[in-house]
Amino acid sequence: MMISLALSESIGIYGLVLFFLGDSLRTLYTFIGISALAIIYHRPKREELETLALAMQREGGPAPKL
């Protein structure tokens, strides 16, 4: 889950780097748009968060409130 979100965010960062290196605004907006769509697609699902909260609670760690 975290790796896919980090990779999705890196797409937007690559677009920003290309823009700073002299590419057009169109490239920046394209990469940021693709990054936003990937982040929305790979967002954590409620079931995944509940499973993580239960696992943390079983291990004795602080369980986040959902």
What does it look like?
Helices cover 74% and strands 0% of the residues. The protein has 66 residues and is mainly α. It has one domain (2-58). Helix 1 packs antiparallel against helix 2 (25-41). The radius of gyration is 17 Å and the shape is elongated.
Summarize the entry for a quick read.
By secondary structure, this protein is mostly helical. It has helices at 2-20, 25-41, 46-58.
Q: What descriptors fit this protein?
A:
mainly alpha
Low-pLDDT stretches are none
Number of domains: 1
Counted beta strands:
0
The structural class is: mainly alpha
Nearest-angstrom radius of gyration? Answer: 17 Å
The profile of the biggest β sheet is: none
- Principal-axis shape equals elongated
Strand content: under 5%
Order of helices and strands: HHH
Topology readout:
Layout: H1 2-20, H2 25-41, H3 46-58
Helix pairs in contact: 1-2
